[in-house]
Specification:
The structure is a homodimer of 592-residue chains. Chain A has 592 residues and is an alpha+beta fold. Chain A contains 16 helices and 24 strands. Chain A has helices spanning 63-69, 127-132, 134-137, 141-163, 204-212, 250-269, 282-289, 306-309, 315-322, 341-353, 379-388, 404-421, 499-508, 513-526, 541-549, 579-585; strands at 25-38, 41-48, 51-57, 77-86, 99-110, 167-168, 186-188, 195-198, 217-225, 237-246, 278-281, 303-304, 326-332, 360-365, 368-370, 396-402, 432-436, 441-444, 449-452, 479-484, 487-494, 534-540, 575-576, 587-589. The longest helix of chain A is centred in the first third of the chain and has 23 residues, at 141-163. Strand 8 of chain A pairs antiparallel with strand 23 of chain B.
Chain lengths: 592, 592
Amino acid sequence: MAELLRGMKRTHMCGVLGIEDIGKEVVLMGWIQRRRNLGGLIFVDLRDREGLVQIVFDKDVSQEAFDKSESIRGEFVIAVRGEVRKRESMNPDLKTGQIEVFAKELKILSESEIPPIHINDEDDAGERLRLKYRYLDLRKPKMQKILKTRSKIASTIRSFLDENGFLDLETPVLTKPTPEGARDYLVPSRVNPGKFYALPQSPQIFKQLLMVSGFDKYYQIVKCFRDEDLRADRQPEFTQVDIEMSFVDEEDVLAINEGLIKKLFKEIKGIEIETPFMRMTYKEAMERYGSDKPDLRFGYELKNLNEIVRNCGFGVFANTVKDGKDVKAININGGAESFSKKGMKNLEKLAKTYGAKGLAWMKLTNDGIDSPIAKFFSEEDTKAIIDKMQAKEGDLILFVADKTSIVNTTLGALRVEIAKKLDIIDEEEYKILWVTEFPLFEYDEEDDRYYAKHHPFTSPVDDDIEILESDPAKARAKAYDLVINGSEVGGGSIRIHDSSLQQRMFKALGFTEEEAHEKFGFLIDAFKYGTPPHGGIAYGLDRLTMILTGTENIRDVIAFPKTQDARCLLTEAPSIADETQLEELQIKVIKE
Amino acid sequence: MAELLRGMKRTHMCGVLGIEDIGKEVVLMGWIQRRRNLGGLIFVDLRDREGLVQIVFDKDVSQEAFDKSESIRGEFVIAVRGEVRKRESMNPDLKTGQIEVFAKELKILSESEIPPIHINDEDDAGERLRLKYRYLDLRKPKMQKILKTRSKIASTIRSFLDENGFLDLETPVLTKPTPEGARDYLVPSRVNPGKFYALPQSPQIFKQLLMVSGFDKYYQIVKCFRDEDLRADRQPEFTQVDIEMSFVDEEDVLAINEGLIKKLFKEIKGIEIETPFMRMTYKEAMERYGSDKPDLRFGYELKNLNEIVRNCGFGVFANTVKDGKDVKAININGGAESFSKKGMKNLEKLAKTYGAKGLAWMKLTNDGIDSPIAKFFSEEDTKAIIDKMQAKEGDLILFVADKTSIVNTTLGALRVEIAKKLDIIDEEEYKILWVTEFPLFEYDEEDDRYYAKHHPFTSPVDDDIEILESDPAKARAKAYDLVINGSEVGGGSIRIHDSSLQQRMFKALGFTEEEAHEKFGFLIDAFKYGTPPHGGIAYGLDRLTMILTGTENIRDVIAFPKTQDARCLLTEAPSIADETQLEELQIKVIKE
């Protein structure tokens, strides 16, 4: 029943026609969004990637096309030859709303059954159904727009980096396990039975080798893989914008990347972003926002109350300070009336999920102070707290007393949750900053050893090289994250390019020379033959696309995403493998 | 010992300095290619991605830099601040040959041991050593140039396709096995134990789904994977330029791709290529060149001699024709003196590797005809053969008599081998053509069934739809290959967009409805909801880069390639996996 094109050529996309085309004969092809009979005419909204246009089937123009049009339904694919005419009743919502096309010829290129989901943005199908019929879900204008934008983001990044002398170089997908990384995906080798490739978590080591090779400036937009238990915003495969430069220090990397981000916002959002970006050290970010990716679109800053409560009458607070821990608070401006008793209970429950033992609060109502802990404070202490918190009538102060890390994490999470809940965030605002001077090491109590916070090749800040062994916990790294609206969209570092410093680093991480060689042998070898100072950054393209398209769900920015249990509902991957193929690979599935 | 940059900034790349920079103070950074003491001065050739520049250490300019320069050796990485001066003895071989830089300050950024291979194009290290020290091998100017060109090829392709409305859309790497394809690489799933992903052999099905989704024009430069036994020109992972378009027929796909190839040759080689490209049907290519990827830079065309030899006195030839087989020949112009007795034996040996039972020959010498088979022919037959072959004194005619396929393959291979051997090919010439109208099916005698020559979604030529069942061997496909200088650099087809035609195709391939659904279920389902006519092409980026850089070895166009036994000599991948990780994956290695 489907007809062939047989030489028919499309002249225009549906969505681009306008009054300038009136009088032209056009050939359009697309999907039927809607069909109506009205006053002896048949009206069809024809859809393609660029939008909708109205087609009119009129007996007086073509009896044949009219008759044929009676059989067409939603999602049929048709080709129409017709004349563009001015429309009588204009549709201002539509780009093509001032014209319509009177059909002289109709070909039905493909029929359609009734689709299981609605092809429009208002469709409320569940996500599993949307993923199973992804090819239909992707027809929705919203999904088309997101993926078109994603394509434009990639091409904008590429053209910026090409213009700035970066080379697009490919690194292997079938490679070696990542030492010190997350869990790798493994690929059994048939030619080398019993051996496995790993899929890369990032091209980190290869991009450093490319710097050793003298390519000077490298980039790649590349799939990376992590076999981790998936959170809502993670996918087993994700796309990284990977960048590395030689003969640079931190300032050079940040400057070129500010240019890149500025250009992206200009091209994609039409927004002029000021450079240089704001910078904040990791230490300041943790102290003031309780997070290494602070969202600066709103206040609720963390304030340290240790000096005020050290000798106060509230034992819990006073003892916390005496034990060398912290008492900190945030002021939810105007939040005194926002939380009922139950709301406050929920906040406390939330606080406890971050390890806090409790959540103290103080409401400044027009009846005075409402707080379960107010009675423990002298009038002077209360005033000092209110002053420090810059609180006024109508405000709500939330206190956490605990180890520094718990206090920061808890209040940091609360400020974000509450800001979202109270809907005080301007979605059109973009707060961009660099978080710098990350700690070089992270101490793992369970393993009783230091881990590299970023990775083992990250360079210490010049001045901290001397404390690498004597005070590793204090050593800062030349590492930086780009944070936009509380989301980490990229991160990187200057790498160690000196073999002897690298040896000291491995030692600080507790590796014997042998272990270091086993894990990083070929990189250590490579560094023996002249290594330039180098550094770079990697962005998550999925995350960047989410921010630039205002999308909350990571699966909406990926054409064919996986579910949280790492399955593709469309193709039903992963699936049972052929027994003979497993035999060839010399592996066997062991059922537990 | 290595020094830090501490704020020092590079001002120029080494290889770009020229007379216009004389008098400037510059900061250069790079690797030491060579160091010489001469007349109390120390001369250093400093190398970076852009080339070499001569640095002079002169006590009178800086005693400190001079003293320091005495310790530097080949492949040390240094930074130099100095003044550009006009050179007394100019070096015309060097872009920077008219200037030199007198050093005021020297930093040794990194030392080097003596590298195991020479960092220049004349290095004759074996390939295994080169691959083990790939990061050093890649420092060679030739390798730098190839990978820079590869990067430019990719960006040229991208900008052309971006300008022409194609969207760069990503398809999954962790996906489903390819039915009817080569052997897949498998990836065990931890979250879904006992199940496996497959790495894609191509994004074929996904790109067709993107057309079903209405994205209209798609491209992707993407890694693909085949677990095949590697030939010299194959790699387990390779890069594909993947393109698909909707609402098009064959002419549209060829036209846009001619634009792309034209632009590539212009940008990369500075050569204007004529469009439209020459076209040749598969049938003609096989008949005239014995190959579906004919190299048209030279003659040696295959000629059919059946009519001449049908009744000749040479029983072998006459019987071949009577048995319905073919006698064909090629004329190696001027080749009569090129092959000794041993040379002719070798040619025959080569012919036999392609299945021929023998190789007959006829030399036209100035002493008359020299040929073991001449005695069987009448004077008239001999003249007819010479006329048909357009042979003249000094030529060599080679004959093969056998089944058509063996005759074509053998003579097709001989003509290429001999052209290479006799060095008659102009390496600067590019002969580009489309080979069209491939057979839709290929009959497999062993399995006694038809296979899709291209893939099961390839559309028949409109006129051949009716013979799909009645004469499948004759059915031609809307499939096309782009052939450059005898190398297939790309291939594609118009796809079937009509469900009922697709069903007929599956039936012709011998699939039951159930089998078809098992293998291609979700694509068949997708085609139920309105499918546009569509088609596309895929290029091998590795192959394309080889042609545009004149490289013979596929490993030279890949930064980190694998050996023929699919190993990476640099990283030693694949390697033994961690036992606990295999347990998590619920798989076990079974040693044979």
